[in-house]
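One record is given unchanged without comment:
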Amino acid sequence: MWLPGGYPEPYAELLSQSTSWHSLRSCADAGTPILAECGGAMLLGKALIDVKGNLWPMAAIFPYVSFMQPHLAALGYRE
């Protein structure tokens, strides 16, 4: 499965209500390889916190929380 990069933060509230999280977790639990880039990786965490401090639940496949900052903090790959 491929989750491309993008900017999920403007849609965080809508994404938090997605009915697809269960099927995405089922695929991950079944061992389906998942490639996620930037915004796609943000969807795989427990939550996304927007610049206003609102916490929006995401797929919760991985234990991290992504948070937005008012200015660019870093650019590049993360582990």
Summary: The CA atoms of residues 3 and 40 lie 5 Å apart.
